[in-house]
RNA sequence: GCCGAGAUGGCGGAAUUGGUAGACGCGCUAGCCUCAGGAGCUAGUGGGCUUUUAGCCUGUGAGGGUUCGAAUCCCUCUCUCGGCACCA
C-alpha cells in the first residue's frame, strides 16, 4: 500500500546515467543478429528546439527500443546537418564565427536529446561542418566530376536576392526561395551542376520498388520528374535555314500547327532578331516578358501575351510557312524552349490564337462525328480521327501520330523521344558556410580538381562575414590564391560552396563507419548496415533531400562504392505538432520546449503524449490537459505496480491446467496485451493504440485486490514482469525503474520483448449479438464455436429477442459463428 | 483545373477489413475522501423519447444504391487538407 512516490526526476536521471555508462545503445556490426538500421532525418541545429522537432525523435526511439527488445542488432545514430545560411546570419548579428554559433547549437541539441532519453549510439555522432566529414563530401564531388556527373555550365539560373546565392529548381517553391520566401530572379551565370537528369528514368522506375514508401511521396517524386513521351520534330527557320527543334506529345496534330512559340529567354531571339528590321518592335516586348516574374507568368490564369517575330518556320511535313511568335507561356526550361502551337487541339494555344487572330485549323475529328472542322469555341483535346492531314486522313489519331513520326524519322526530321521536367541539380552556392568546392582555376579559366590527397579544402577562419559584398571566401586572398597542382603556376580557388543538400545526400552511409579514414565509408560496414531499414522524417523533403539521396546512392552504386542503389527501404513521414492551429515556430511564438514539460512532468510523460495523442503520421495539436492525462496514467501505473508487487508471487510459475476460469481470463488479458502492443507497433507504428492497450491492461490491474490465491499471485507476477517491457519503448525510464524493482537478475534489455502463449489467447466464451432484422435485441454469452442451433435456441430464450420474434415468421437466419445471429422476420 | 488523402461525440482519436459505432484519453456531471485541492477514488457521459434495475427511436459530411447487416463497398454532391499546375 505504501508505494514510493513517483519521482520522475531521479528515475530519469538514474537511467540516463546508467545507459551512458554501459554504452547501452552502441551498435555492433559483428553481431550475428539480424540488423535493423533506423534513422531519423538528422536536424539542422538551429537556435530553438521544440516539441515539434522532438516528436520525430521520439517516434524513432520508440521503434528503436522495440526492435532492440525484439532481438535485432539496431543501428540508431544521430548527427548534424550543420552547414547553412542561418549560421552566417547569426554570425553577422552576433559578430562571432558561424562555427562557434553552430557548435553551440549542436551541444544544446545534444543535451536536449540526451535528456529525452533517446537511444542513440552517440559514438557515431557526425557533423557535416567538420573537416573529417566534409573531406568526403569533397571527395564525392570529385568522384562525380571524374565520372562526368558534375559539370560547370553557363545559363539562366534562379537567384535568391535575400540569400544572395543561386538555388536549385527544387528549392524554388511557387517562384520563391524555399527558405527566404523572396521572389527569385533569373540570372545568367556560370555554375556547377550534378547530372541528375541522367538518372531520371531510374529514379522514376525504381519508385515502383519502394513499396515501403508512402504513395504520397512517390507521387510527388513522379510529378517532379515529370516524364512525358512524345516526339522531337525539326522545323526549319525559313529566312536562315537554321533548325528549330520542338518537343511535342501530340505529333498527330502536326498538320494543325498554325504558329510557333518561343520562350522569351530563347537564345534564338538574340541571334535571329537582333539587327533585323523587326528588332525595334520585337526586342522591347521580349524584354518586358522576360521581366515578368516566374510567379506572374506561371499563374494559371495569367494573361497570355506574345509578339510576332516577323520570321517564319517551315513545317517539315508539308512545307507550310508558319509564323514564329514569342509567347510568355512558353517555358525556356522545358523541352527545347520552343513549341509548335496547335490552337485547335490545345487550350493554351487556342486562347493565344484567339487573342492574336491566328488561324485555328482542326486536324482531329471526334469519333463517330460528321463535324467538318467548322467554327470552334474551345480546343478539342480528346482522341479522334485525322482530318486535314494529307495522307494520314481517316486514321485514328494515336496511330497517325506514330506514323507521322516514322515518316519524319526517315528524313532525319523527327524521332520518338522522352522529355522530363527534372533539370540538372545546380549545386554551387555563393556562401561561406558550406563545403568548399574542391576545384581550382588555371589562369585561362580551365578547372582543375584538387587532388584527393590535398583534401579537405578547409575554410579560412580569418574572414569578415558582413552579409555585404558577396561571398566572404572570394574576398579572402589567402584562400583564393593558390598554386595549380597540375601546372605549378599560380591559380585561383573556386570560392563557391556546395548546396547543403549534398552534405545530407550521403550521411546515412557515413553512419555505417563514421570514424573510417580509408574512404568515405568502410565497405564491410556498409554491406552489413545498408540499406536504412526505416527512415523517419517530415514530408517537406519529399522531393528535395529524398530525391537527391536516391540519386547519389545510385551514382555511388554505379561506381561500385555503395552496396545499394536505393538508400531507404522504408520511409515514414510523421505529422507536425501544432499549437493554436499553426505549426510550432519561434517566429509565431507558439512553441512548447521540452524543458517546460520535462521539468513539470518528466520525460516519460512528454514522450507518452507525443506518441499517444494521435497516430504518428497525423498532425497533432498540443494539448496541456492531455499531457497531464499522460502524467496521471504514469502515476497510476506506478502505484498499481508497487501495490501489487507486495502481493505478487516471487516468480511467475503456475500450472496452466490448474487455473480456474477467472484466472485463465486474467492470464488471457496479459498475453493478449502483449500481442496487441506488438501488432499495433508493427502495423504502421500505431503507438497510440498500443498505448491504449497498455492503459486497458493497467486499468485491469488496478481492479485487482488482495487476497490472492497462489495461482493468482503467480499470474500477477507475470503481469508485472510484462508491463514494464511493454511500456519501455514509450516510457523507458519508468519502465527500467519498475523492472529493476522486480529483481529478476536480468536487465530489461536482456529479458527482451515478452512472449505470448498462443494457447492463452483463446477465448472460452464469447459475446454473440442477437439481431432481429438487423437491429440488436440481445447479447448472449456463449461458449466459443457454438453451433447455430445452440445460439438460436439461446437467443429465443432472451426475453427481449423473443418479444421481437413473437408472432413473426422467421424467413431466414444468418449466423456468423462467434459474432452474430440475425433473424430476418416478417 | 489535375492528382492524392480525408470528413466519426464537446475535443484528440478507436473500430480485428462488411458483423454491438464511439476503444483509450481529454473535458464535463454527480458522489466519496479531504482543513483544502488544479491530488486520489467510484459512477455516469453521442442525441432524443418512454411507463427509466428496463426499453424504443435516431446517429459516422449530404443524398441515393448494393446487402440479412454499411463508418467500412458502389454512384452523385459538398467541404477540408496536401501536392502539382501555361510542362507543349
Structure summary:
With 826 residues, the chain is α+β, with helices and mostly antiparallel strands. The chain is 37% helix and 19% strand. The protein contains 28 helices and 34 strands.
Description of the molecule:
With 826 residues, the chain is of the alpha+beta class. Strands 10, 11, 12, 13, 14, 15 and 18 form a seven-stranded mixed beta sheet that branches. A four-stranded parallel beta sheet has the order 2-1-26-27, covered by helices on one side. A hairpin with a 6-residue loop joins strand 13 and strand 14 (321-327). Helix 18 (594-601) crosses helix 19 (603-612) and helix 20 runs antiparallel to helix 23. The protein is globular. The model has no long low-confidence stretch (mean pLDDT 91). The chain binds one RNA strand of 88 nucleotides through helix 7, strand 11, strand 15, helix 11 and strand 30.
The separation of the N and C termini measures: 60 Å
Helix content: 25-40%
How many H/I helices?
28
Q: Helices and strands: which structural class?
A: alpha+beta
Q: Tell me the number of strands.
A: 34
Q: What is the CA-atom radius of gyration, in angstroms? A: 34 Å
Oligomer: single chain
The average pLDDT score comes to: 91
Amino acid at each position: 500500500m505504501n508505494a514510493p512516490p513517483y519521482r520522475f526526476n531521479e528515475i530519469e536521471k538514474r537511467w540516463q546515467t546508467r545507459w551512458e555508462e554501459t554504452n547501452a545503445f552502441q551498435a555492433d556490426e559483428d553481431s550475428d543478429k539480424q540488423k535493423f538500421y533506423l534513422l531519423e532525418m538528422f536536424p539542422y541545429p538551429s537556435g530553438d528546439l521544440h516539441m515539434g522537432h522532438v516528436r520525430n525523435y521520439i517516434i524513432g526511439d520508440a521503434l528503436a527500443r522495440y526492435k532492440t527488445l525484439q532481438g535485432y542488432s539496431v543501428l540508431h545514430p544521430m548527427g548534424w546537418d550543420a552547414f547553412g545560411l542561418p549560421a552566417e546570419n547569426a554570425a553577422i548579428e552576433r559578430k562571432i564565427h558561424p562555427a562557434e554559433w553552430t557548435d553551440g547549437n549542436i551541444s544544446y541539441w545534444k543535451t536536449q536529446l540526451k535528456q529525452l532519453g533517446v537511444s542513440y549510439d552517440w559514438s557515431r555522432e557526425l557533423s557535416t561542418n567538420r573537416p573529417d566529414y566534409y573531406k568526403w563530401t569533397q571527395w564525392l564531388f570529385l568522384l562525380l566530376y571524374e565520372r562526368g556527373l558534375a559539370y560547370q555550365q553557363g545559363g539562366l539560373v534562379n537567384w535568391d536576392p535575400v540569400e544572395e546565392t543561386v538555388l536549385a529548381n527544387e528549392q524554388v517553391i511557387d517562384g520563391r526561395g524555399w527558405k527566404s520566401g523572396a521572389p527569385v530572379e533569373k540570372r545568367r551565370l556560370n555554375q556547377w551542376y550534378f547530372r541528375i537528369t541522367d538518372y531520371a528514368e531510374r529514379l522514376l522506375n525504381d519508385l515502383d520498388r519502394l513499396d515501403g514508401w508512402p504513395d504520397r511521396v512517390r507521387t510527388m517524386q513522379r510529378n517532379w520528374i515529370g516524364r512525358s513521351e512524345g516526339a522531337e520534330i525539326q522545323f526549319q527557320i525559313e529566312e536562315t535555314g537554321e533548325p528549330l527543334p520542338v518537343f511535342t506529345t501530340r505529333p498527330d496534330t502536326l498538320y494543325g500547327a498554325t504558329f510557333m512559340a518561343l520562350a522569351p529567354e530563347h537564345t534564338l531571339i538574340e541571334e535571329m532578331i537582333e539587327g533585323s528590321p523587326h528588332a525595334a518592335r520585337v526586342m522591347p516586348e521580349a524584354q518586358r516578358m522576360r521581366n515578368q516574374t516566374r510567379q506572374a507568368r506561371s499563374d494559371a490564369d495569367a494573361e497570355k501575351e506574345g509578339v510576332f517575330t516577323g520570321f517564319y518556320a517551315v513545317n517539315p511535313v508539308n512545307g507550310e510557312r508558319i509564323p514564329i511568335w514569342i509567347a510568355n507561356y512558353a517555358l525556356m526550361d522545358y523541352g527545347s524552349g520552343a513549341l509548335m502551337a496547335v490552337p485547335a487541339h490545345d487550350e493554351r494555344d487556342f486562347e493565344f490564337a484567339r487573342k492574336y487572330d491566328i488561324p485555328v485549323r482542326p486536324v482531329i475529328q471526334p469519333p463517330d462525328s460528321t463535324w467538318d472542322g467548322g467554327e470552334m469555341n474551345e480546343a478539342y483535346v480528346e482522341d479522334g480521327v485525322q482530318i486535314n492531314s494529307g495522307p494520314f486522313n481517316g486514321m485514328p489519331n494515336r496511330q497517325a501520330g506514330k506514323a507521322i513520326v516514322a515518316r519524319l524519322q526517315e528524313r532525319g526530321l523527327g524521332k520518338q523521344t522522352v522529355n522530363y521536367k527534372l533539370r540538372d541539380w545546380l549545386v554551387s552556392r555563393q556562401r561561406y558556410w558550406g563545403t568548399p568546392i574542391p576545384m581550382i582555376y588555371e589562369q585561362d579559366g580551365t578547372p582543375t580538381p584538387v587532388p584527393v590527397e590535398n583534401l579537405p579544402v578547409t575554410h579560412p577562419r580569418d574572414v569578415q562575414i558582413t552579409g555585404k559584398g558577396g561571398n566572404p571566401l572570394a574576398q579572402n586572398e589567402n584562400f583564393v590564391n593558390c598554386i595549380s597542382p597540375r601546372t605549378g603556376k599560380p591559380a585561383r580557388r573556386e570560392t563557391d560552396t556546395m548546396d547543403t543538400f549534398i552534405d545530407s545526400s550521403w550521411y546515412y552511409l557515413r553512419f555505417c563507419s563514421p570514424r573510417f579514414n580509408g574512404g568515405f565509408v568502410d565497405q564491410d560496414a556498409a554491406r552489413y548496415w545498408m540499406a536504412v531499414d526505416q527512415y523517419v522524417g517530415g514530408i517537406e523533403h519529399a522531393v528535395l533531400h529524398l530525391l537527391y539521396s536516391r540519386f547519389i546512392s545510385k551514382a555511388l552504386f554505379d561506381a561500385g562504392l555503395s552496396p545499394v542503389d536505393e538508400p531507404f527501404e522504408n520511409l515514414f513521414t510523421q505529422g507536425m505538432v501544432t499549437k493554436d492551429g499553426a505549426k510550432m515556430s519561434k517566429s509565431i511564438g507558439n512553441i512548447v520546449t521540452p524543458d517546460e514539460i520535462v521539468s513539470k512532468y518528466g520525460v516519460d510523460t512528454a514522450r507518452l503524449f507525443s506518441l499517444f495523442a494521435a497516430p504518428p503520421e497525423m498532425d497533432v495539436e498540443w494539448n496541456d490537459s492531455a499531457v497531464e492525462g499522460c502524467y496521471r496514467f504514469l502515476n497510476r501505473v506506478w502505484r498499481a505496480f508497487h501495490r501489487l508487487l507486495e502481493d505478487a508471487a516471487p516468480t511467475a510459475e503456475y500450472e496452466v491446467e490448474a487455473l480456474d476460469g477467472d484466472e485463465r481470463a486474467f492470464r488471457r488479458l496479459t498475453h493478449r496485451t502483449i500481442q496487441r502492443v506488438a501488432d499495433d507497433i508493427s502495423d504502421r507504428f500505431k503507438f497510440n493504440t498500443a498505448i491504449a492497450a497498455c492503459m486497458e491492461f493497467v486499468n485491469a490491474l488496478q481492479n485487482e485486490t488482495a487476497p490472492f490465491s497462489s495461482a493468482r499471485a503467480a499470474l500477477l507476477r507475470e503481469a508485472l514482469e510484462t508491463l514494464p517491457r511493454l511500456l519501455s519503448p514509450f516510457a523507458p525510464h519508468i519502465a527500467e525503474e519498475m523492472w529493476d524493482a522486480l529483481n529478476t537478475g536480468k536487465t530489461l534489455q536482456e529479458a527482451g520483448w515478452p512472449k505470448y502463449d498462443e494457447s492463452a489467447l483463446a477465448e472460452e466464451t464469447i459475446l454473440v449479438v442477437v439481431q432481429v432484422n438487423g437491429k440488436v435485441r440481445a447479447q448472449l454469452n456463449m461458449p466459443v464455436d457454438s453451433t447455430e442451433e445452440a445460439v438460436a435456441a439461446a437467443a429465443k430464450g432472451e426475453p427481449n429477442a423473443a418479444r421481437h420474434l413473437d408472432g413473426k415468421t422467421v424467413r431466414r437466419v444468418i449466423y456468423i459463428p462467434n459474432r452474430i445471429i440475425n433473424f430476418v422476420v416478417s
